[in-house]
Amino acid sequence: MGGRWPLPEHGATRVGGDPPFLEVVKVGYEVDGRWLVRAVDLTVEPGTFTALLGPNGAGKTTLLRLISGELTPSQGDVALRGAPVSARRPEDLARIRALLQQRRHLAFPFTAEEVVRLGRHPHRTPGTRHDEVVNGSLDRVGARSLAPRIYPTLSGGEATRVDLARVLAQEPALLLLDEPTNHLDPRHQHEMLEICSALTAEGCAVVAVLHDLNLAALHAHRVLILSQGEPAALGAPREVLTAQRIEEVFGLPCQIWEHPSGCPWVVPCPALRRLGRRPPGPLHPSPRGVLAPHSRS
After folding, report:
1. Are 164 and 66 within one domain?
2. Cα angle 205-65-162, degrees, rounded to a multiple of 5
3. Is residue 50 helix, strand or coil?
4. What's the pLDDT tens digit per position in 14-34?
5. Taking a C-beta distance cutoff of 8 angstroms, is the pair 120, 133 a contact?
6. Do 69 and 190 reside in the same domain of the chain?
7. What's the domain count of the chain?
8. Residues 179/201, Cβ–Cβ less than 8 Å
9. pLDDT of residue 286
10. H or E element: which one contains 44?
11. Pair (87, 214) in one structural domain
12. 165 domain residue, yes or no
């Protein structure tokens, strides 16, 4: 995997008075008197990868569902290409954005290829291009060999790759992913996010819920950290992923080292919490160019 740092801060530049590609303004979502998400602002432009981070129950999946149009905000607005998501017809929305959900269940004995072909449903036009897109999507995720397999017989990781191919077959301008690296081994986790990064280079906007802070640091242009449903920080990984903020939001003492690619690398130090101590420091560049803690005499 080649290093991708430094990453661009922004995607495509808007022309004149064009609205942002995706704009989330003061969005909140309330259920039974409890705010699952509140006061979230986010702007996403084509060619960018935004990671949504936060502890369990922070509101990441709820925010993604609000962005996708699956949920309607209790307050605020979500607009896509200048029009409210709630005002768009489902078939029109499906041609613009694709959502890979965290929980996916399919009991019917479809083949993997047939599952991927479902992604072409919003593009109900005659011709042979459907075959080209389906095969290209399977190739892109390294799942062409799985095409004849029955979907319910696939492993969790194989099914995840097929599901990614399905949403790629929609040819979306906005790709929304809810914990896409679940069930994947380390190699396929990085390959999954490499595909997302390649899509941004082609002009697609990607918003993904991730739990692994280091995967987000390696692959995302920006990260939004949520805490108890509200935004705690938004910016480039190097600006946002600080030891102090990670301990405050996640309750995890850590050090921030530098990955060989130049991005921040979170090194957990949970034992120090039990001992009532803080991580040692300050950090300094090691001879190999990787940040490491000062040695203690």
Report:
1. no
2. 65
3. strand
4. 555 678 999 999 999 999 999
5. yes
6. yes
7. 2
8. no
9. 41
10. strand 34-44
11. yes
12. yes
User: Which structure tokens are listed for 163?
Assistant: 């599901």
What does pTM read for this prediction? 0.86
Query: Which residues span the domain enclosing 59?
Result: 18-96+172-240
Q: Prior bond to 152 cis, omega within 30? A: no
Residue 2: inside a domain:
no
Residue 288: per-residue pLDDT: 37
Helix (H) or strand (E) holding 205: strand 205-209
* Ranges of the chain with pLDDT below 50: 1-11, 281-297
- Is residue 106 within 8 Å of 151, Cβ to Cβ? yes
Instruction: Return left, alpha or beta for 188; rule: phi > 0 is left, psi -120 to 50 is alpha, else beta.
Output: alpha
pLDDT of residue 277: 58
Domain presence at residue 185: yes
Looking at the structure, do residues 145 and 92 belong to the same domain, yes or no? Answer: no
Question: Which residues lie below 8 Å from residue 224, measured CB to CB, with a gap of 6+?
Answer: 40, 42, 50, 51, 52, 53, 231, 233, 234
